[in-house]
Amino acid sequence: MGQVVHTSRIVITREKGPTRKAMIEGFAEPVYYGVHGGIKHFYKVEPEKEHAATLDHIVGAVGG
After folding, report:
1. pLDDT tens, position by position, 4-55
2. Which end of the chain has fewer surrounding CB within 10 Å, N or C?
3. Distance between CA 49 and CA 64 in Å, rounded?
4. CA–CA distance from 9 to each of 17, 27, 38 (Å)?
């Protein structure tokens, strides 16, 4: 079996409504997740500020 080269340590907290803040170990700035565009219309929510959805981050990571 291979050697573990990295373990992600992330604390995610819900801010308000659909907005979540992720603090990733090793980075000073948070990453925000939320809803926008068709996603906010699907869930019928209107956030104070739009953020990329978790789906956007997954697609970006796989495609990059």
Report:
1. 999 999 999 999 999 999 999 999 999 999 999 999 999 999 999 999 999 9
2. N
3. 26
4. 24, 11, 30
Closest C-alpha to 39, from 23, 24, 19, 13: 19
pTM comes to 0.82
The single residue listed with the structure tokens 């068709």 is 38
- Give start and end residues of each alpha helix (H) in 1-53: 37-43
Nearest residue to 47 (alpha-carbon basis) of 33, 34, 64, 60 = 34
Q: Would you kindly state where each structural domain of the chain is located, as residue ranges?
A: 10-63
